[in-house]
Amino acid sequence: MTRIVCISDTHGRHDQVVVPDGDILIHAGDCTRFGTLTDLIDFLKWLAALPHRHKILVAGNHDLIFERNPPGAEALLRAHAPLIHYLNDTGVEIEGLKIWGSPVQPAYYDWAFNRQRGPEIRAHRNLIPRDIDVLVTHGPPAGIQDLTVSGERAGCADLAEAIAKLTRLRLSVFGHLHLEGGRSQKVAGVTYVNAAICDEDYRAVHLPVIVDL
After folding, report:
1. Where residue 178 sits, what CATH number does that domain have?
2. Among 79, 101, 171, 212, whose Cα sits 20 to 30 Å from the Cα of 155?
3. What is the pLDDT of residues 116-174, one digit of tens each?
4. What is the extent of the structural domain holding 20?
5. Number of H helices, E strands in the chain
6. How many domains does the chain have?
């Protein structure tokens, strides 16, 4: 059994999070508030110091440095490799689990990793291998813990369609929408986790979610 600890949307408040022990720590994006180099350095020092044997990171829409200055971000990540696996429409196998990560979400203001709904974002979803066990995306699939304060369901329909085609998926981790952070639910054998730590006012109030696979 592998214990997976899920967090997301710490938005620079990571030092306020009590992270439970586990084998794999997943951060599903928005590790920074403003996406600066200084923000990222501070976060990566914190993340690298945690005791988990493996750490998975995808970027989020606030993490602008990953899209606007990839060489700078990648240099920092290399300094912390192999402790931290950064996934950008890429995968890794850890302890027998095939894990795929993607930062893209339906276009949201002028933040990072925006893609238009339909063919543009579908091209990213089509890259997901059918035989993965764990999927990490910044945003949720449509209809799963994707409620906004205005009552809108803002999840990605193309992501939901891609998930329906996956043959071995056991865990889907995401954040982005803070309202339902810290919650999990099981649907058709898949555990879905909205791992957002911050609430709508960027207060670190939601707890990490633990999943045993």
Report:
1. 3.60.21.10
2. 212
3. 999 999 999 999 999 999 999 999 999 999 999 998 999 999 999 999 999 999 999 99
4. 3-212
5. 5, 13
6. 1
